Amino acid sequence: MLFPLGQLRSTDGKRVVYRVHAIKRQKQAKKTISFYKYNFGFREPFQILIDGTFCQAALKNKIQIKEQMPKYLMGEVQLCTTSCALKELETLGKQLYGAKIILQRFQVRKCPHFKEPVSASECLLSMLEETNPHHYFVATQDYTVTTGLKKIPGVPLLYIILNTIVLDKPSQASLDHVQAVQLGELVSPAQQQSIRTLKEEQGIGQKDRERRGKKRKRKQSNPNPLSCLKKKKKGVPTPPLKKTEQEGKRKRSRHKKRKVEAGDGTAANT
Ligand SMILES: [Zn+2]
Fold first, then answer.
1. Locations of Basic and acidic residues compositional bias (predicted)?
2. CB 167 within 8 A of CB 32
3. Which of 104, 142, 214, 222 is the most buried (most CB within 10 A)?
4. Interval 84-99: pLDDT, tens
């Protein structure tokens, strides 16, 4: 699938190389999005929590967030922010006026700081709570927010670098969480035991065993459909192969005759 970069440079110059990078970036994003969909229950429309630093970077790099975000994430998005993030931009003054104008266009989500606004970074992190239950993507250039959200499993991070939006790879906390779930570590052994006893009391545990038994019986009673297919395939293609071989032989003999005739013709001409 990957083309040698040298050849692409010689045919179409920089543009082609740039396209290769864009394809790689999109592929990586697709992989990361499906990671969050599968392991953390993310669904469209994706909720994108944005702060002033991201808007400022978008403005500098001439990125239209509303246009680019759904394209890059390959799905519907809801762009949102908090009143604390907006208030912070207002207090920072003229230099961030453009960023404020952009941020104002997004939905304002309720935060717990209605009476006393806090810094944008503190507010954004508080919106994620401990498990990011509202499935927010966070779009920020703020170091405090970035390092903070990486400690919470299941928070996708979006940032701007080299004129493009980038979806960060899953954090170690996210990867560890997924592994722990797969290993069954997140439910303690004591809890697992109490779940088992509860199931047995309710008679659910026995039903599970019966279902498993039925599935096994089905597999044994039905013949494997693949084994049937193989026999047919082996039987059918062999006769036509022989025919083609015979035809090939006949053709060869005709060719020989023609060659001989042609040879005679040329001999006659000279
Ligand atoms: Zn707030």
1. 197-211
2. yes
3. 142
4. 999 999 998 888 999 9
54-94 pLDDT tens trace: 999 999 999 999 999 999 999 999 999 999 999 999 998 88
Q: Could you write out the three-class secondary structure of 14-47?
A: HHHHHHHHHHHHHHHHHHHHHHHHHHHCCCCCEE
Distance 114 CA to ligand 1 centre (A): 7
- CA 35 – ligand 1 centroid, Å: 29
Q: Compute the distance between CA of residue 45 and CA of residue 137 in angstroms, rounded to an integer.
A: 11
Topology of domain 37-178, CATH: Rossmann fold (3.40.50)
Put simply, whether the predicted model's pTM sits higher than 0.70 gets the answer: no
Cα(116) to ligand 1 centroid in Å equals: 8
CA of 86 to the centre of ligand 1 (A): 9
How far apart are the CA of 93 and the centre of ligand 1, in A?
19
For 45-77, letters b (16+ CB in 10 Å) and e give ebbbbbbbbbbbbbbeeebebeeebbebbeeeb
Note whether 129 and 148 are within 8 A (CB).
no
Domain parsing of the chain, residue ranges: 37-178, 187-235
Distance CA 41, CA 49 (A): 17
What is the three-class DSSP state of 48?
Answer: strand
The answer to whether the beta carbons of residues 55 and 102 sit under 8 Å apart is yes
State the distance from the centre of ligand 1 to the C-alpha of 113, rounded, in angstroms: 4
User: In the predicted model, is pLDDT for residue 212 greater than 70?
Assistant: no
Give 202 Cα–ligand 1 centroid separation in angstroms: 45
Q: What is the pLDDT of residue 15?
A: 60
Residue 18 is predicted with a pLDDT of 67
